[in-house]
Amino acid sequence: MNFSEEQITRYSRHILLPEVGGKGQAKLRKARVFIVGAGGLGSPAALYLAAAGIGTIGLIDSDRVDLSNLQRQILHHTPDVGRSKVQSAKEKIHALNPDVTVETYEERLMPHNAIKLIQSYDVVIDGVDNFPAKFLINDACFFADKPLVHGGILRFDGRVFTIVPGQSACFRCIFRQPPPPGAVASCQEAGIIGAVAGIIGTLQATEVLKLILGIGRPLTDRLLDFDARTTTFREIRTSRNPRCQLCGSHPTITELFEHVPETCRFEPSAGIPVP
């Protein structure tokens, strides 16, 4: 795939890397990445993937920009308050890198549209802020056989891990189902240090680039937890659960369904941070 002189200059620091080079940069230009949620995690992930030269980025989010979002959702600026998040995000991505095609979906990811949307992309990023949506994304990626990079944040904590269907533990292997309503604190009550969203979202983007380029060791069968208070990372080993309801030996989940909606939550006993 040929690059213009301007593109060679733009991506020169990538091309200098033996693990990337011109062939790797061409892979990035051909790649299609689907980001669910244009918020705290989707913002840094989208910007770094656009800067890296990902050819097509799909963004799905039904929300509009709120003033309280601006503390961490860096795709959006003060004049964007009240605007569609996906349209605001598309403008910022194009301002950063006009080479990138941005496909927007101003709607919620639901059981009836999830697989159809995800099937046309190579990798999916989970940037949502509630458990039911995270389980839906996990299940849809399993049925569509698409790699998924999960991320979650709350307070001073963050988590990221990568799921390759049929090869590594899925979200349900680790967390069987969403916690019951009222069992854990809401994000509005708990708060979030905005910079943590940047750290976790950037790690998600890095995982995507590694998967597309076929380099390094992805965060499969490993949960990477981050504590901003002590600036420490902790790795938790996982493995596929043969009794998993979705990807186990005798699955009981054979189609997509929607869990009862809950607000953004954190389960302290399981250490599950979400945006």
Q: Work out the strand percent.
A: 15-25%
| SS field, number of helical segments | 10
Instruction: Report the CATH superfamily.
Output: NAD(P)-binding Rossmann-like Domain
Q: What is the topology, as strand order, of the major beta sheet?
A: 3-2-1-4-5-6-8-9
The dominant shape is globular
Largest sheet: 8 strands, mixed
Radius of gyration of CA atoms, rounded to a whole number: 18 Å
Mean pLDDT: 92
Based on the structure given, which CATH architecture is correct? 3-Layer(aba) Sandwich
Number of domains: 1
Structural class: alpha/beta
The CATH topology assignment is: Rossmann fold
Helix content: 25-40%
Strands, count: 10
Assembly state: single chain
End-to-end Cα distance:
38 Å
- Enumerate the spans where pLDDT stays under 50 for 5 or more consecutive residues: 261-275
SSE order, one letter for each helix or strand: HHHEHEHEHEHEEHEHHEEE
CATH hierarchy class name: Alpha Beta
Task: Please outline what is shown here.
By secondary structure, the chain is of the alpha/beta class.
Task: Describe the 3D structure.
- With 275 residues, the chain is of the alpha/beta class.
- The protein has a single domain, classed as NAD(P)-binding Rossmann-like Domain (Rossmann fold, 3-Layer(aba) Sandwich), CATH 3.40.50.
- It is built from ten helices and ten strands.
- The strands form two sheets. The protein has an eight-stranded mixed sheet, sandwiched between helices. A two-stranded antiparallel ribbon has the order 7-10.
- Strand 1, helix 4 and strand 2 form a beta-alpha-beta unit.
- Helix 4 packs parallel to helix 5 and helix 4 packs across helix 10.
- It is globular, with a radius of gyration of 18 Å.
- The C terminus is likely disordered.
